[in-house]
Specification:
Elements lengths: L2 H10 L3 H15 L1 H11 L6 E5 L5 H9 L4 E6 L2 H10 L1 H6 L2 E5 L12 E7 L8 H11 E11 L2 H4 L14 H10 L2 E11 L2 E10 L1
Parallel strand pairs: 1-2, 1-4, 2-3, 4-5
Antiparallel strand pairs: 5-7, 6-7
Helix pairs in contact: 3-4
Length: about 210
């Protein structure tokens, strides 16, 4: 397996010793600016019920737990290694019942309809095999007037990177806006941030 294919596989689903010891910490470091953007756009209150889809190394999840400390926080990730890592890292919050973590697919979220006031996902949409179904599931688990924040790097920022040739589905902003609207979201807006050579967009959408 080529290095670029191996990196793409680990970015999509961190696993094994490399995933736990190298990829998850690297994701936490790299995502600092975009996590800050996501947290700002979530406008969390202490009693919010929040879901993060694809929490990886758990850096944003830690900040969400601190902000919604009187509510409830849940996370789903496709990588069992990421789930086990964050269960250990955030064991105090898991034990208290504030936080629940699941190994699950975004297209089959293990929650009842209307469970969350906020849902967020950072740098994961590239790996969703069926984005329309995924957005439909996120729409389902949101409460009425709930907020979804989706952060990503646009196609023009990503396509020059060799690893994105392997299993990545890249998007421009308008493509994702149209998918969100077709899934039932409304009032879609955008903000962005940059750091060094990286550029990210946050899309905010409400459930009608």
């Amino acid at each position: 397996m080529s290095i670029s294919r191996f990196l793409a596989t680990q970015l999509g689903k961190p696993s094994g010793i490399f995933g736990r010891l190298v990829m998850l910490p690297a994701l936490n470091r790299h995502n600092l600016p975009v996590n800050a953007l996501a947290l700002m756009q979530l406008h969390l209150g202490s009693t919010d019920r929040v879901l993060e889809v694809g929490f990886g190394g758990g850096a944003l999840l830690c900040q969400v737990v601190a902000s919604a400390h009187q509510g409830h926080v849940a996370g789903v990730d496709y990588s069992i290694d990421a789930v086990e890592h964050c269960r250990r890292k955030l064991s105090r919050h898991v034990s208290s019942g504030l936080l629940e973590l699941h190994c699950a697919d975004v297209c089959q979220l293990p929650f009842s309809s209307g469970t969350f006031s906020r849902v967020c996902s950072v740098n994961t949409v590239y790996f969703w095999p069926d984005p329309h179904a995924a957005f439909g599931e996120i729409h389902r688990v949101l409460q009425k007037d709930g907020l979804f924040v989706l952060c990503f790097s646009p196609r023009k920022e990503m396509q020059s990177r060799q690893f994105t040739l392997h299993g990545f589905r890249l998007y421009e902003q308008q493509e994702l806006i149209e998918l969100l609207i077709s899934a039932g979201f409304r009032d879609v807006s955008a903000e962005s941030t940059s750091h060094k050579s990286d550029h990210w967009v946050a899309l905010m959408a409400s459930k009608a």
